[in-house]
Amino acid sequence: MALRLGWVGMLCLLADVAQAASLRVSAEPPLSGERLGDALRSYLDSAEIRIEPPPGSAEGINPQPQEPGSVVVTLRKARWSGGDAEVVLVDGEETILARLPGALRTEDLYRTAALKVQSLLQRRLSAAPSGMSVQTKSSGTPSRVGLLLDIDIAMMVPTQGPSREALRLGLGLRLAQRWHLGLGAYLEPRQSADTQGIHVTSWELPVYLSLGYAWHTGIWQGFAEIAGHGAIRRFSAEAPGIVSDSDTTLSPRAGGVLGVALGIAPGLRAEMRVSGLAVLADARYRVDGQVVWPAASALVLFEMGLEYGGH
To answer: Is the pTM here over 0.90, yes or no?
Structure first.
C-alpha cells in the first residue's frame, strides 16, 4: 500500500514541475552559435538550448523572445574593439550587454561567454517574471565526473508468477556529458503462495549494474541503458507430513532500459523508466519433484522516481 501511495505522490509531483528556461542562442559570423551552445550545455543543466541562425541572415533571430520564459543570447564582436567580444542577453523587455575584454584573442572564447551568460542568469533568477529556473554548474572547468543518487518505485511484471512492487536505491557516476554508470539494488517484500497443499515463501534481492547514454539533453532528458541484474533468491516450503525445505539461488538477468527525466529543481530530476530483462538462468523451485514456484523467462519493470546530482 505504501508503494502505491508513493506512485500517486510521484504523479502529483510531475504535474507540478516548474517551468525551466529556454535559451535561443546565436552568434554573428565568423563566431559559431553551435560552439556557444555546446559550452552553455556544460554549465546549464535544465535549460533548453536552441541554436538559431545568426543575426542579419534571412532567417536570423528576432531580437525579442517570442515565448514566455525564453531568453535570447547573442555572441558578437565588440563594435569598437577588435579583440573584445560582447554577449547580448534579452529577457522580456530588458536587454543586457556584457563585454568580454580580449576574449577573441583566447582559445576559451566560448567557455568565457558561457560563464558570463551563467552569471547573468543567476543574477536575474530571483526577479525573473516568467518563473524560469536554470540549473547551473560550477563556474570552474566543466566536471566530467559527478555523483548521482536514485530512488525509484518499481512495478515488476514477470512472464510467469505474481507481479510485485519494489523500491530501487541507486548510486551512479556521470562519466562524461552524456554517459553514466549505475549500481544499486531493488528492495522487495516477501511473497508467499499455497500450491497443492504446500506453503511456499519467496524472497529476492536483485542487484544491478547499468551503463547509460543520454540521447537528448535540455529541459527534459531522454536516455537509454544496458543493464545486468543478479538476483539472490531464497525459497522455503512447508507442508504437513514433509520436512521443511529451503533453497538459495542466483538468477542472472540482462536487458535494456528506456527513460526520460525532467528537471524540477537545481540538481533534482523526476524520472520514468521502462526496462525489459531476459532471465538467463532461472530454475523452477521443486519440492519432492513437484514444481511449487514457476520460473519466469523475462521481466518487465515500470519505474518512477527521483534522481539527484550532476547529470
So the answer is: no
